[in-house]
Amino acid sequence: MTDNVLQIEGASKDRGNLRVLDAVSLSVAPGERVALLGHNGAGKSTLIKAILGLITLDGGRIDVAGATPGSAPARAATAFLPEAVSFHPALTGREQMTLFSRLAGARADVSALLERVGLADALDRRIGTYSKGMRQRLGLAQVLLGRPRVALLDEPTSGLDPISRQDLYDIIDELSGQGTAVLIASHALTEVEARTDRIAILRRGVLVADDTLAGLSARAGLPIRLRLRASADADAVAARTGGRRINGASVEILCSPTEKMDALRRVAAMGEAVADIDIAPPRLEDLYRHYAQEVPQ
Q: Which of 113, 219, 264, 266 falls between 20 and 30 A from 53, CA-CA?
């Protein structure tokens, strides 16, 4: 037995002569937030469809809360938010959520739920008048019904403004806090960098990375950037530190994680010649580019 509520082992799927999933193994534990990254066509949507039981695998297996994808127990345990949510335009938000609540066998406080996702002022408006962001919020309210054990979120911040994006991740944190395993497929690297526990990267159907941000960074061995602001002569600071001047007063030094402290000691020894320093470890964008093997032109 495994403690993971979502367990994927050797998942493979062919589409004609094209292998869209190639022996993918991935797990999500209760309360864990995992970001699933990859270019368009990398296999993210295919994997989500397989977890939902919408397609069958050609190899491997998926276990959803101890059940087979698509079975009644698996459906009951899973909540899904697609990128393009769709609801009946003639229903109001309250009517749609009341219907979903009855279908799910949940006794939900619909008004409180819609208030939680920022739709308190639109409870009794027809969904056909909702903006894309409002429909996305309504979809998130559906995810919150029934305390799901697994939540699959496909580009969940699509159509949301910056404040709404922050609110959404607060709700994702709540789901995680109540033990829901959350898998987020996203292109919004900056968001998932700060709000997930683990990063999984697909490239052409192959899982090329699966680790914490720190673990990915350590394995990649990408350089740390030290950005110095010179008090006077930036060229002199660049010459003494082995860095390069990048504008009138700034110098950039690239060093490996093991060289960082030595570089900082050299900078400190320069005294007042250096007015300020910023330390920038590799960003998720850098790591994603590295593991997805996207070479900049």
A: 113
Q: How many CB atoms lie within 10 A of CB 102?
A: 11
Contacts for 102 with CB less than 8 Å, ≥ 6 apart: none
Give the Cα separation of 276 and 231 in Å (integer): 8
The token pair at 275 is 């007015």
Question: Whole-angstrom Cα distance, residue 54 to residue 155?
Answer: 19
Q: DSSP of 132-155, one letter per residue?
A: HHHHHHHHHHHHHTT--SEEEEES
| Cα 233 from Cα 208, distance rounded (Å) | 44
Q: What is the pTM of this model?
A: 0.82
Average pLDDT, the chain: 89
Kindly give the interhelix angle for 284-291 and 213-220, rounded to the nearest 10 degrees.
60
Q: Is residue 191 classed as helix, strand or coil in its secondary structure?
A: helix
CB distance 252 to 1 below 8 Å: no
Nearest Cα to Cα of residue 270 among 231, 227, 226, 217? 231
- The CA–CA distances, whole Å, from 99 to 103, 143, 200, 223 equal 6, 14, 35, 53
CA dihedral 139, 142, 144, 145 (to 10 degrees): 180
Instruction: Tell me the residue length of the chain.
Output: 297
Integer Cα distance of 201 and 193 in angstroms: 13
Q: How do strand 59-64 and strand 78-81 relate by DSSP bridges?
A: unpaired
Q: Which two tokens stand for residue 206?
A: 């192959």
d(CA 23, CA 112): 43
Q: How confident is the model over 18-70, as pLDDT tens digits? A: 999 999 999 999 999 999 999 888 999 999 999 999 999 999 999 999 999 99
d(CA 55, CA 49): 6
Closest-CA residue to 209 (of 287, 150, 283):
287
Q: Which CATH class is domain 6-218?
A: alpha beta
